[in-house]
Amino acid sequence: MIKQISIRTSKRNEFIDITEEVQAVVEGFNVKSGICYIYVPHTTAAVTINEGADPSVKRDILMMLEKLIPHRASYAHMEGNSDAHIKSSLVGASEVVIIEDGRLRLGTWQSVFFCEFDGPRSRRVIVKVIRD
Ligand code: ZN
C-alpha cells in the first residue's frame, strides 16, 4: 500500500510537520499494526523525526545546519545548491515508524518533518504502509 503526499514549500530552508498527513495515510489504509515507511524522492530535501511541541527546536536545527553547511562556499557543483545536497544526505531520505492500534507509534514530543533545503518548490513524500 503506497500513497504520495504533495507539499508546496515556501522558504529555502524549512521544516514542515507532516505527522497528520502521514497518520491520515495509515488510517486511509485501515492498518492497525504494521510498519510505515516515509520516503523523500528528492536530492535537496529530507525527512526527519524530532520535537514538534516546541517550534524553537526545528529553528535551532535549521540554524546549526546553516552554520555547519553555508549556502555559499567553494563548492564544485555549478547549480549553486551544494549546501542543500549535503544537508539532504546528512538528514536522510527516509524514516520508519511503527504502527500500533492504528496510530504512528511516535514518542510524546515527536513529529515527522519534511525538510526543505532548496525551496520554495513543489515536493513529494512517498508513504508505504506494510500490514503485519
Ligand atoms: Zn544541485
CATH class of the domain at 15-106: Mainly Beta
What assembly state would you assign to the polypeptide chains in this entry?
single chain
Radius of gyration: 15 Å
Low-confidence stretches: none
Average pLDDT number: 98
* Count of β-strands: 8
Q: Any idea what the CATH superfamily of the domain at 15-106 is called?
A: YjbQ-like
Strand-residue proportion:
35-45%
Secondary-structure element series? EEHEEHHEEEE
Roughly what percent helix?
25-40%
Summarize the structure.
This protein is α+β, with helices and mostly antiparallel strands. The protein has helices spanning 19-28, 55-68, 82-91, and strands at 2-8, 14-17, 34-39, 45-51, 94-100, 103-104, 110-116, 122-131.
SSE blueprint and pairings:
Elements: E1 2-8, E2 14-17, H1 19-28, E3 34-39, E4 45-51, H2 55-68, H3 82-91, E5 94-100, E6 103-104, E7 110-116, E8 122-131
Antiparallel strand pairs: 1-8, 2-7, 3-5, 3-8, 4-7, 5-6
Bound molecules: zinc ion (ZN).
Give a structural overview.
The model has no long low-confidence stretch (mean pLDDT 98). The strands form 2 sheets. This protein has a 5-stranded antiparallel β-sheet with strand order 1-8-3-5-6, with helices on one face. Strands 2-7-4 form a 3-stranded antiparallel β-sheet, sandwiched between helices. It is built from 3 helices and 8 strands. The relative contact order is 0.40. The protein has a domain at 15-106: Jelly Rolls (Sandwich), CATH 2.60.120. By secondary structure, the protein is of the alpha+beta class. The longest helix has 14 residues, at 55-68. The radius of gyration is 15 Å and the shape is elongated. Bound molecules: zinc ion. Zinc ion is lined by residues 77, 79, 81, 85. The site of zinc ion has 4 residues, from loops.
